[in-house]
Amino acid sequence: HKCHCRTSTPPRTIHLEFLLLHNMSAVILLDLSSFKSSPSSFTIGLNFHELHLQKNCCAFRGFLEVPLKGIQYLYWNTEIYGRCGRFFEWGSNEEFASKGLESLGVHNGSALSPGTPSYFMVLHWADEEMQFLHPTQDLFKKHVEAFMRMEYVGKMHSYKPHIEWEQLSSCISWPLVKRLRPANSQWIQSDLLKEEKEHIENHYRGSSDLLSSRSTNKKSSIFTEVPKTICDASLTPMELTQLNFDKSILLRRLLSTEYDGETAELLGEYQYAFVSFLIGHCYDALQQWQSLLFLLSQSNDALKDSNMEGFWKQFILIVYHQLRVLPSDFMSDNLSSENFLFDSLCQFFDLIDLAPKEIGRQMTTLKQSCEKKFECTFELNDDDDFAPVYVVDEND
Question: What does the pLDDT read at residue 94?
Fold first, then answer.
C-alpha cells in the first residue's frame, strides 16, 4: 500500500469526524519502526484477513474498522522466527489490553456518541526479541494521537469482516482463552514442521517458506487432557469393552470434571484448537482437535440423550463450518494423521440411524456435504482387521 503525503495538518473537527465514522469499531496500531530482522518479508493477519508486506514494512501502521464484538485472533510471522498468534477481546481490562480513548484524555469524550466506545490496541516491534511487545503508556498515547492527527492515512488497512471467522469462533469465550493460553505469555508460537506449514500456506495464503520447527521451549496452549480410557475397578469387563465402541462415559466424565457441565466450554475449546491449528499452525492444537473429534464422534449413548440435543445440533453446525474451510485433499494429507478426520467422520455418520430424528437429518446433510467436497464415501469398512473385538456376557 502506497503511503500518501500529508501537506498540512487537518483541523481537529475532521479528526473527530473521522473517529465518529469508525466509532462502532476498533483500531490496531503497529509500530514497525525498529523492524530490521527480515525487511523483505513480513506477514500480519487478523482472523482470516492476512497481509503480506514485501517492501517498506515499516510504513504499515495497522488495521482500521476492527469489530468490537467477539474474540479476535491477531498473528504475524517472519522468515526467521516463524509464526506467533494471540487471541484477544476488546475491553478485557488486562494489563496490556486495549484502552479506551477517554481513559487517555486524547479527545473530548462528548464528541463521541454515548454507548459507542472506540478502542485502540498498540503493539511495538522489538527487533532484539523478534516479537511484538506492548508499549509504555506514553508510547501508546503518542501513536493514538498521531492517528487522530491523521498522520497514518494511507498507511493502514481496513479490516474486511469474514462470516467464516464468526462461525469458527462462536463458542470461544474470553475466560476460556485465559485458561488455555500459554502460561506467562500472550503469544502462542507455531510448532508445525516446515513441510506441514508449507502445505497450509499453499492452500490458504500462498507459500511463505517458514523455517522454525518444533521446540521443547515453544509457547503452546494448555489444553484440557482428553481421556482415552477409564481406570475404574467398578466397571465390568463388558462395560470396559463397550468403551471401545461408545465413548459416552468418557464424554460425560470430561464434561463433569473439566467443564463443570458446561457443554459450550467444550465446544469453545474444540473451536479454539481448530483455529490455533488452521491459522496459528500449532501442532498441539491439531492433536487436541483430533482428540475431541474422536471422542465426540463415538459417543453413541450421549447422542441419544435428550438433555444434550442442543449440544449435538451446535456441534454438527461447528463441524460443518470447519470442514468448509479445509482443503479438499485434507483427507489424504499427512497432516490428518492417517486420515483421523475420515475415520472420525465415518464413525459419526454410522450413528445416523441411532440419532433423534432432527439430529439425524443434520448429520445426513453434513455427510452429503462432506462427500461432495472431499469426493469420497464415508462408510465404515466392516472387513477391518483392526476393528475392536466384542466381549459377550455369557449370562445374556
Answer: 58
Residue 70 phi, psi dihedral angles, 5° rounding: 85, 175
The alpha carbon of residue 223 and the mean position of all alpha carbons in its chain are separated, in whole angstroms, by 13
Quote the CA–CA distance of 300 and 102 in Å, as a whole number.
53
∠ CA 219-225-227, rounded to 5°: 155
Instruction: Tell me the C-alpha distance between 221 and 295, whole Å.
Output: 20
**Cα separation, 253 vs 76, whole angstroms:** 38
Does residue 237 or residue 202 have the better pLDDT?
237
Strands (E), the chain: 25-31, 42-46, 49-53, 62-67, 72-78, 82-88, 99-100, 119-126, 131-133, 156-158, 188-189
Residue given cell 506467562 in the structure block: 184
More confident residue, 143 or 99: 143
CA-to-CA distance for 380 and 129, rounded, in angstroms? 50
- CA proximity to 97, closest of 118, 120, 117: 120
Q: How far apart are CA 78 and CA 89, in angstroms?
A: 24
Phi then psi for 82, rounded to 5 degrees?
90, -155
Specify whether the CB–CB gap between 219 and 189 falls below 8 A: yes
H helices within 170-262, ranges in order?
174-180, 194-204, 237-242, 248-258
